[in-house]
Amino acid sequence: MADIFERKQRIAVLGGGPGGYEAALAGAQLGAEVTIVERAGVGGSAVLTDVVPSKTLISTAEAANAIGEAADLGVQFSIRGESGRAVRPDVTVNLAAVNARLLGLARQQSEDMKANLIKAGVRLITGDGRLDGPQKIVVSAGKGKAAKDFDEVEADTIVVAVGSSPRVLPTAQPDGERILTWKQLYQLDTTPERLIVVGSGVTGAEFASAYHALGSEVTLISSRDQVLPGEDADAAAVIEDVFRRRGMHVLAKSRAQSVERTEDGVIATLADGRTVEGTHCLLAVGAIPNTADLGLEEAGIQLSDGGYIRVNRVSRTSMPSVYAVGDCSGVLPLASVASMQGRTAVFHAMGDAVNPIELRNVTSNIFTQPEIATVGWSQKQIEEGIAQGEIYKLPLSSNPRAKMMGIRDGFVKLFARTGSGTVIGGVVVAPKASELILPIALAVEHRLTVDELAGAFSVYPSLSGSVTDAARAMHIVR
Question: So what's the pLDDT on residue 1?
Answer without folding.
Answer: 46
